[in-house]
Design a protein that fits this description.
InterPro entries: HTH-type_LysR_regulators, LysR_HTH_N, LysR_subst-bd, WH-like_DNA-bd_sf, WH_DNA-bd_sf. Pfam families: HTH_1, LysR_substrate. The protein has 322 residues and is α/β, with parallel strands linked by helices. It folds into 3 domains: 84 residues, Winged helix-like DNA-binding domain superfamily/Winged helix DNA-binding domain (Arc Repressor Mutant, subunit A, Orthogonal Bundle); 94 residues, D-Maltodextrin-Binding Protein, domain 2 (3-Layer(aba) Sandwich); 105 residues, D-Maltodextrin-Binding Protein, domain 2, CATH 3.40.190.10. The chain is 41% helix and 20% strand. The protein has 11 helices and 11 strands. The strands form 3 sheets. Strands 3, 4, 5, 6, 9, 10 and 11 form a 7-stranded mixed beta sheet that branches. Strands 1-2 form a two-stranded antiparallel ribbon. The longest helix is centred in the first third of the chain and has 28 residues. The radius of gyration is 30 Å and the shape is rod-shaped.
């Protein structure tokens, strides 16, 4: 059974004539006849009394409401898809790591709301691993995360490098390490650490770095908000290794101190991740472009494209591992 067969069936039922139905469907009468014959063969029942006027048989009467419903559903579906591709998307869902939500994302959100006032933005602050999972599950449209080559190395994912930044040390202003302009990793390993919870890319990055140094990470507390990190390091001897962006406000807090590390400098890479099919949707493609312009690279300068898209070419970047 094909959709055009049902459309031919409805046209005949409405006009009472194969000839008029053919004109309505913009096909020949022989085509209409073949479609109905094929439909009757598939269903195993005659649908019309062939006389001076095509009247529905009992089987045709039973099929009629179902055929109307099927064709209406198809029309609704095609209309919704057309509206989606024209930019009429009711909402756009974004998952981003906490530091991005706090510092980088607000100007992007403001500009997007001005450009697409009819599209509701939904932003969730999540760890990198969780954000990538909800993206793959189709629960969000875009994830802005710390790059994890094991989770982003997937052919359906589009991964854009936004920026790379160093990891610095946050401590209380009267902490013993605050006397140094730069802090060596040997000194850092002597103090208890406050770290992000499991599922946050920062915890994995710090753990792996300590393993490379051949020392144990003395993690005494796991947190998931930047305010909590600042509050806890004020209280005692513990320190926290956090990305430079997340420490912007701490420089203006007299109770806190921020110091860079000595070599080797530990960096994190922030990336935007989405899927090729989502970039066919104008609001999502526009949001990506705004992120590139305001936070990271400008996509208009990138020659790579999303090659498996059916729509006009969209810039694409490749994942670059830390």
């Amino acid at each position: 059974m094909r959709l055009e067969q049902l459309q031919a069936f409805l046209a005949i039922a409405e006009t009472g004539s194969f000839q008029q139905a053919a004109r309505k469907c913009n096909v020949t009468q022989s085509t209409i006849s073949r479609q109905i014959q094929s439909l009757e063969s598939d269903l195993g029942v005659s649908l019309f009394h062939r006389s001076t006027q095509a009247k529905l048989t009992l089987g045709g009467e039973r099929l009629l409401p179902h055929a109307k419903k099927i064709c209406q559903e198809w029309q609704n579906a095609t209309q919704e898809l057309a509206e989606l591709l024209s930019g009429k998307q009711p909402e756009l869902c974004v998952a981003a790591i906490p530091s991005i939500c706090a510092y980088n994302l607000p100007p992007v959100l403001q500009k997007f709301c001005q450009d697409y006032p009819a599209t509701q933005l939904r932003v969730t602050s999540l760890g990198s691993d969780r954000a990538l999972k909800v993206l793959k599950d189709g629960l969000v449209d875009v994830a802005i995360v710390m790059n994890n080559r094991f989770l982003t190395a997937s052919p359906e994912l589009i991964v854009d490098e936004l920026y790379t930044e160093p990891i610095e040390v946050l401590m209380a202003a009267d902490h013993p390490l605050a006397q140094y302009q730069e802090i060596s990793w040997l000194e850092i390993t002597n103090y208890p650490q406050i770290v992000f919870k499991v599922g946050y890319g920062m915890q994995r990055l710090i753990q792996e770095h300590f393993q490379r140094l051949g020392v144990n990470l003395n993690a005494v507390l796991e947190l998931n908000t930047l305010d909590a990190f600042r509050g806890m390091v004020r209280q005692g001897n513990a320190i926290a290794l956090l990305p430079k962006t997340a420490l912007s406000d701490a420089h203006y807090d007299p109770t806190l101190a921020v110091r860079p590390t000595t070599e080797p400098i530990l960096n994190r890479q922030v990336v935007l991740v989405t899927t090729c099919d989502r970039l066919q949707i104008p609001p999502i493609a526009h949001f990506r472009s705004l992120v590139h312009k305001i936070i990271g690279v400008d996509s208009t300068t990138n020659p790579n494209v999303c090659t498996n898209s059916a729509t006009p070419k969209t810039p694409r970047s490749h994942a670059i591992a830390i």
